[in-house]
Amino acid sequence: MSTDNAVEVRCVVEGGLGRVTLNRPRAINALTTGMIRDIAAALAVWEHDDAVRAVLVEGAGERGLCAGADIRALHASARARDGLAEEFLREEYHLNARLRRYTKPVVAFMDGIVMGGGVGLSAHTAVRVVTERSRVGMPETDIGFLPDVGGTYLLSRTPGLLGAHAALTAARLGAADALLCGLADHYVTGDRLPGLAEAIAGGADPASAAAEAAVASGEPAGGVLEEARPWIDDCYDASTVAEVLERLRTRPEAAARRAAEEIEAKSPTSLAVTLRALNEARALADLEDCLNREYRITRALLETPDFLEGVRAAVIDKDRAPKWSPSALADVTAEEVEAFFAPRGPELGLAAPRPQ
């Protein structure tokens, strides 16, 4: 099968490999609804094609796999209240769940920038490969939003409370820290990716081939979270962001105090909602349960002034000076946070396979 949309995404079969190449390099392959639909359509065909033994997800260009959703488009939809943003999220979350449950191995090359929706396309796959160029993160609190696309599932299951730290600070993780957090499986240097893809297309088992390439690549450098585990686990073991900040400010480590400064710059509403969502996600059984919950929360967040303001400051005007409303954590009430978790309109309705 070959469907070639030169603007957004290419889906082709090479040997036994179904190859999905996100193809908006100038936008760091930011996702559109059309791209989500094209990928879902290719997966539907390949799942029943005996010639396709595995699937590869990769990004065109030199900058990265995917910078996330097309935030400008979501911002425009949220302003217009036309429902297109909600439609995008619904189809995106269904694709995230499908990738996790796909009946054939899916390999993701998490090379370069992999943020937000890019994590949703890659971190739920069977074989996740990072490189020396990888920068992996769920930075949605930067724009008054929530780590979605299953981000609450992934970040609530990191060792200790590394996920809470990454979410609240909007951290960008290098290869070593992405591996430590369970967001990736193998470190392979970028120059070995073409050979790895060729081996899989030729019939090699994807997991074994990635493991062999990882052995040849050696260990990634630059991890910082392992050493920070003691203060991170202590400071983020809290039910409120205010308590997290109080603990961070009193730690002797300079990195802890920098984390407090980073958190204080985010939307108070987004922070409060994100911490509660992460704390509750630990008790949810499956990715689908978390996605169902995220769909409620993100639709509510789209209606807040902070999402519009966050995107304006980060992406549109780029002044990096958002004016949050409310501007202080103390002004975000428990009742206001609770409202983000309440049912609202049609549910996502994802159901995970249950043991018989």
From TrEMBL:
GO terms for biological process: L-valine catabolic process. Residues 18-341 form the Enoyl-CoA hydratase/isomerase domain. Gene3D superfamilies: 2-enoyl-CoA Hydratase, Chain A, domain 1. Its EC number is 3.1.2.4. It catalyses: 3-hydroxy-2-methylpropanoyl-CoA + H2O = 3-hydroxy-2-methylpropanoate + CoA + H(+). The lineage of its organism: Bacteria, Bacillati, Actinomycetota, Actinomycetes, Streptosporangiales. GO terms for cellular component: cytosol. It is an enzyme of class 3 (hydrolase). This is 3-hydroxyisobutyryl-CoA hydrolase. It comes from Actinorugispora endophytica. GO terms for molecular function: 3-hydroxyisobutyryl-CoA hydrolase activity. Keywords: Hydrolase. Pfam families: ECH_2.
